[in-house]
C-alpha cells in the first residue's frame, strides 16, 4: 500500500513539471484586451478588472498557483477498526482494559497548507473525534497529521493525492480506555473546488493505518471521509498601470498600498493607523494593539493584580482583592483557612477534628461523640445476612440519641468481614450491613444525607484471620466523623 501511494505522488509531480510560463498550466492571468493594457480595477470606459479573470473560462480561472497558502476547516466521519490498538493497558483488567471503539466517529478539525510549487505542497492538520466505546463509555480521539500533497494543478477543479504520518490519541476516563497515543501512516486522495479567488471546497477520502490489537499482529485500516471549506491565499494580483492615483492622495497606485483610501507617504499611501481603535493614533500610542486612554498614553488603565479593580483605586495593587477591602484580599487573621467574615473567632484558629470545623473556633470532640467513632462494639447481624439482631438495638439507639443531640454531625458507617468466603460476596455483605445500620437510623428520624455507607469486606482486618477470635474482631461496624 505504501509503495502504490508513493508511485501516485511521483507520477502526479512529473505531470505538473511544466514551465511556470505556460498559461494553461500555471493559471497565470491575462491583463485583458488585445495589448494587455486594461485597468487593474476597471476603467470608466468599462474595461474589465483583470484580477477577476472574467476573460477566462471558469474551469481554468482559479487553478492553483505557486506559493499559495490554503487555510481551512473540515468535518466528516472516521470508521475506527474494531481491533484498533488505542487504550491504556491495565494489569488484571479483562483483555488488559481493551475495548473496541464505536464503528462511526464524527470528526471536526482545521488544516494549514503551503504549496511552494503548483503541483506539490505540505499540509498540517489537527482534528477532534468525539465518540464512545461499544460499551457506551464516552471517549475523545485526537489526531495530528502532516502530509505531502501532489495535485494536478491545471483546473479550478483539482484532483490530488496525499500521504503522510499522523499521531492518533485517545483521552478518556479509566472506566473507558484511559489515555494512549499511537503513530500511524495515512494516505488518500480527493478533489478541490476553487469557486472564487479565495473560496474553496474540498473532499477527502483517506485510510489511516495504525497498530493492530495484539503483539506483532500487523496494522488495521480506519477509513475517513472529510468535507472542508477553506481560503486560498497569496494568489498573484495583476499590477495596476502606472500614473494612476485613484484616491487622489498624491501617491500613485503603483506605490500606494491603500489605493481606495487617501493616506500619507510615511505609511505607503495608507492612513495613519489607529490599530486598536481607541482614537489615539499609533505613533502616539504605547499600546497599539489594546484600546486605552490618553492618561496612560494609549494604554488601558492598569490592573496589575488582575482582580478587576484598577490600580488608581486599588490599595493592594500586587495582590488580587475585592472591592469591600479596597482591592485587598479578604483577611484571614488567625490563618486557619476560614476568612474573617465567616470566622466566629478571628483571632483563634479552628481545630480541625471533623467537629464543627466551619465556625473558625477552637473546639474538641464531645465525649458523647467520641463513644461513637471508630469500632462500635455491640452491633450484631444474623450469620451471612445483613439483618440486625435485636440485641443491637440498645447500642444503635444510643448512637441515634447522639446524632439527634448534635444535628450537624455527619458520619460514615463502614461494614467489615473476616476472610471466610468469596471476596466479592464479603464486600457486598459488608456494604449491605452498613446500609442496614443507616436504614435503622433513618427510620428513627435521622436525615439520610447525614450518613454515608461503605463496604470494606475483608480488606481492612483488625486482627489476623487465622484464629476464631481474630475473625470475630474483624466482623464489625465502624463509625467515622465526616466534614
Summarize the structure.
Helices cover 14% and strands 28% of the residues. The chain is α+β, with helices and mostly antiparallel strands and 483 residues long. The protein has two domains: 2-233, Beta Barrel (Porin); 368-482, 2-Layer Sandwich (60s Ribosomal Protein L30, Chain: A).
Question: What's the number of domains?
Answer: 2
Query: How large is the radius of gyration?
Result: 37 Å
CATH topology of the largest domain: Porin
Instruction: Give the class from helix and strand content and strand pairing.
Output: alpha+beta
CATH architecture annotation name of the largest domain: Beta Barrel
Strand content: 25-35%
Q: How many β-strands, per DSSP?
A: 12
| Cross-sheet strand order for the largest sheet | 1-2-3-4-5-6-7-8
Broad shape: flat
In the CATH scheme, the class of the largest domain would be Mainly Beta
What is the tally of helical segments?
Answer: 7
Instruction: Detail the poorly predicted runs.
Output: 1-47
Classify the helix fraction into a percent range.
10-25%
Q: What string gives the helices and strands in order? A: HHHEEEEEEEEHEHEHEHE
Measured distance between first and last alpha carbons: 62 Å
Question: Mean pLDDT score, rounded?
Answer: 83
Q: State the major sheet.
A: 8 strands, antiparallel, barrel
Describe the model.
By secondary structure, the protein is of the alpha+beta class. It folds into 2 domains: 2-233, Porin, CATH 2.40.160.20; 368-482, OmpA-like domain (60s Ribosomal Protein L30, Chain: A, 2-Layer Sandwich), CATH 3.30.1330. Helix content is 14%, strand content 28%. The protein contains 7 helices and 12 strands. The protein has helices at residues 2-15, 23-26, 58-61, 367-370, 393-405, 423-443, 468-474; strands spanning 68-78, 105-117, 120-132, 138-151, 157-171, 179-194, 199-211, 219-233, 374-375, 410-416, 451-457, 476-482. 27% of the residues are buried. Mean pLDDT is 83; it is low at 1-47.
Amino acid at each position: 500500500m505504501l509503495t502504490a501511494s508513493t508511485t501516485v505522488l511521483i507520477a502526479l509531480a512529473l505531470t505538473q513539471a511544466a514551465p511556470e510560463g505556460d498559461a494553461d498550466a500555471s493559471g497565470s492571468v491575462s491583463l485583458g484586451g488585445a495589448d494587455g493594457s486594461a485597468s487593474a480595477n476597471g476603467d470608466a470606459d468599462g474595461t474589465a478588472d483583470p484580477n477577476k479573470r472574467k476573460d477566462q473560462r471558469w474551469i481554468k480561472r482559479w487553478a492553483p498557483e505557486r506559493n499559495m497558502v490554503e487555510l481551512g476547516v473540515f468535518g466528516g466521519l472516521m470508521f475506527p477498526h474494531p481491533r484498533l490498538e488505542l487504550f491504556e493497558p491495565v494489569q488484571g483488567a479483562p483483555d488488559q482494559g481493551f475495548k473496541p471503539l464505536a464503528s462511526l466517529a464524527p470528526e471536526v478539525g482545521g488544516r494549514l497548507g503551503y504549496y511552494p510549487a503548483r503541483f506539490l505542497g505540505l499540509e498540517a492538520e489537527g482534528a477532534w473525534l468525539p465518540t464512545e466505546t461499544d460499551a457506551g463509555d464516552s471517549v475523545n480521539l485526537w489526531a495530528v497529521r502532516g502530509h505531502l500533497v501532489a495535485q494536478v494543478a491545471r483546473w479550478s477543479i483539482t484532483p490530488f493525492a496525499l500521504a503522510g504520518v499522523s499521531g492518533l490519541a485517545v483521552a478518556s476516563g479509566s472506566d473507558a480506555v484511559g489515555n494512549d497515543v499511537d503513530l500511524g501512516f495515512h494516505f488518500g486522495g480527493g478533489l478541490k473546488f476553487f469557486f472564487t479567488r479565495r473560496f474553496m471546497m474540498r473532499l477527502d477520502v483517506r485510510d489511516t493505518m495504525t497498530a493492530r490489537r495484539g503483539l506483532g499482529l500487523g496494522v488495521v485500516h480506519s477509513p475517513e471521509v472529510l468535507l472542508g471549506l477553506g481560503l486560498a491565499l497569496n494568489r498573484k494580483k495583476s499590477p495596476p498601470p502606472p500614473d494612476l492615483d485613484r484616491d487622489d492622495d498624491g501617491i500613485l497606485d503603483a506605490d500606494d498600498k491603500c489605493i481606495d483610501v487617501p493616506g500619507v507617504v510615511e505609511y505607503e499611501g495608507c492612513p495613519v493607523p489607529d490599530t486598536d481603535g481607541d482614537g489615539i493614533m499609533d505613533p502616539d500610542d504605547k499600546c497599539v494593539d489594546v484600546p486605552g486612554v490618553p492618561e496612560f498614553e494609549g494604554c488601558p488603565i492598569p490592573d496589575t493584580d488582575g482582580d478587576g479593580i484598577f490600580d488608581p483605586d486599588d490599595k493592594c495593587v500586587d495582590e488580587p482583592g475585592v472591592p469591600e477591602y479596597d482591592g485587598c484580599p479578604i483577611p484571614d487573621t488567625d490563618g486557619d483557612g476560614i476568612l474573617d467574615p465567616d470566622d466566629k473567632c478571628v483571632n483563634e484558629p479552628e481545630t480541625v477534628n471533623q467537629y464543627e470545623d466551619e465556625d473558625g473556633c477552637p473546639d474538641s470532640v464531645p465525649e458523647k461523640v467520641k463513644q461513637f467513632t471508630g469500632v462500635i462494639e455491640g452491633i450484631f447481624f444474623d450469620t451471612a445476612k445483613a439483618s440486625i439482631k435485636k440485641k443491637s438495638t440498645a447500642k444503635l439507639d444510643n448512637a441515634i440519641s447522639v446524632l439527634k443531640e448534635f444535628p450537624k454531625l455527619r458520619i460514615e458507617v463502614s461494614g467489615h468481614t473476616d476472610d471466610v468466603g468469596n471476596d466479592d460476596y464479603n464486600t457486598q455483605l459488608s456494604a449491605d450491613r452498613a446500609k442496614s445500620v443507616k436504614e435503622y437510623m433513618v427510620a428513627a428520624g435521622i436525615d439520610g444525607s447525614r450518613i454515608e455507607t461503605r463496604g470494606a469486606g475483608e480488606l481492612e482486618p483488625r486482627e489476623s484471620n487465622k484464629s476464631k477470635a481474630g475473625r470475630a474482631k474483624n466482623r464489625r461496624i465502624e463509625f467515622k466523623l465526616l466534614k
